[in-house]
Design brief:
Blueprint: H1 2-8, H2 11-36, H3 40-43, H4 45-63, H5 70-77, E1 82-87, H6 98-104, E2 120-126, H7 127-137, E3 146-153, E4 159-164, H8 173-212, H9 228-276, H10 281-304, E5 312-315, H11 316-326, E6 332-334, E7 342-345, H12 347-364, E8 369-375, E9 380-386, H13 420-430, E10 434-439, E11 445-451
Parallel strand pairs: 6-8
Antiparallel strand pairs: 1-4, 2-3, 3-4, 5-7, 8-9, 9-11, 10-11
Amino acid sequence: MVWLQRAVSSLVVRITALTVAALMAMFAVLLLLVQTSVAPEALYPRALTDNAESIAELVWLVENSPEEIQPFILSAYGGGYRTAAISEDFADGLQPRAGMRARLASSQSEVASRLTDREIRFQALGVLGLQSRLRQEGAAPLVGTAALQIAIKLKDGRIVNIWLVPALTLSRPSAALVASGFLLVLLSVALGLAIAAVTLRPIRRLELDAERVELGDAGSGVSETGPAELRRVSAALNRMRDRLTGLIREREQMVAAIAHDVRTGITRIRLRMDERGAVSAKEIEGDIAQMEALITDMLAYARAQSPSGPQELIRLDSFVADMSNAAPYPIKLVAPLDEDFVIVGDPVALHRLFENLMENARRYGGGKITVRVIATEGGREVRIEDDGPGLPEDQLETLFQPFQRGENSRNRATGGTGLGLGIARAIAKAHGASLHLENRPEGGLVAIVRFPQDLLT
């Protein structure tokens, strides 16, 4: 039943259902108009005029022919848009109509004049009434949605019934075309307005909700209501808004941290100058280097999410092995170099990725570093392991946030700026890979960079 609920909430299903309902309503209205025959005087005058002489001839033939051949006369008369039958009396609903009688006897021919003194009754029938009357009188079937029944009393008291299916001409051929075209345009406009209401109302509501969204306010997202398609759009907008909100807050945090560190360095330099009036370049070199490193890392973090360097085909196993062997500190390498796993990436950015992870392992991991390249199902994992104290599980993800480190201070003597892991994850994500930290069962941390199968060339 879940699929049924999803189908009912779909915008496509709603529009389709509305269209079908509108078409059914249109046909119902047309059928009702024909069935009720709201304007018989306008629909049937031409049919009466055109058929006056043939009707008079039929009456004359029936009256002057033996009874056994009368069925053949009626059969020969019928066909196409008319049929006839003889009954013993007038059917219920037949009424004398002066206007129709005048139209029927208006012909100046001698044949038509024979109808002048006859008792004639008329009735306009819709599709249901027509079929019922034909069955009742035993007449031949007649194809039509409406017909005019003309009942004429014969000299022997019987009734000859004639049913005519006129063209909807309204007395002139062009009038039918104009009326049909006007009705079609009217129904099309009504259907278009209904569809517009169904589709535009939830879209307009989504637009108004989006207008009220503020990136800094995490509590006012776009309402995820309406058809399934718009709910998916609303959910995507909310996810995008959350990402933008996180990005803005991250940038604000970074700017505040930079301002703090730069102000701290300037304050130390100013204090030294206040104490002795002058200070040597060597004394302030550490403070300047710290501020320079912070700005460098800040720029690297900003650029890491969209590397702009040249893209190259990189053999991942060899790339990681070369970096491990060239490191200025000992690294144990475990890599299956008998296979090639090729990715497309920026070698400078990838070098920064693995360098940050190796440096992080050296700084906090107790001095022993192991780099493993593991072949997974269609992909590769690069694991940088250390034998340090590890971290509580609830802090592993926090370390990827800007200026977050495994220790409380940001002293250059004990740690970096707190941007290294954030830069590494941003570079990995830009190359279609993922990066996360885990505590090793035997102690220490492992940084795992996973390259999926779809990066194979």
